[in-house]
Amino acid sequence: MVDYDKEYYKQPGLWNGSPPSKIALERINKTISLIPKDVKTVLEVGCGGGNIVNTLQERGFDCFGIDVSEEGLKYVKCKKKLMSGGNLDFKDNSFDLVICSDVLEHLSLDVYKKTLDGLERVSKKYILITTPYKQCLRKGFTKCQNCETTYNANRDLRSFDENSYKTLFTNFNLEKLIYINRERKQNWFEKFLRYRLGNFYIESNIALCPACGCKSNYKQKYNLFSSLSALSYRIMPRRKKARWISGIYKIQNKTYK
Question: Cα–Cα distance between 93 and 76 in angstroms, integer?
Fold first, then answer.
């Protein structure tokens, strides 16, 4: 049986080696700012195209990057290996710091739990996590035109907030939490138009159906409701919220058999 999750991350369109956008660069720099001064060795789990781990390597850290995408690893400039976070092939306490940025929200439940356990096992001192903050998963839904499966186009499966971060690990305590990229929050009127009146699904050039592997996703239907939705985006008042949340964890009492 084909694993369409793995096929999704093989797409060259996800990785092109180009410099990160201004927003992505803010996320990278804010995440890096949490790294304690006594860190020398770093493992990044789910390093993608290497934006974080390459930056740290240039700054003098001894870095290792792993990912499930061969395409992404082509752009990683430090030590690297094709590997899943759910099966970390490293000895216990191998790295001062383990980073997992924009990864946990994409993992299936089984891999998610194994990854969290693995991060604790291979980290000697710290774990650094970054995820989207209070993400509306429904906002990223698209629909397969082949089998009509509804799914998140970006493979986002779970949402995180402050309470989520407090309970991620057993042997590591949350030391500091920061919010990244304050942006305008979707207003209630736009939500009503999008989700109740027909402008629900999004178009995506990287969407890959998890059920049949088809890349033919929903094509946006422009009508009165979609026009009103677009207008409300421009004129309706919105509350600001962070786009990402990032936390640094420090080891407490750690015992492994």
Answer: 23
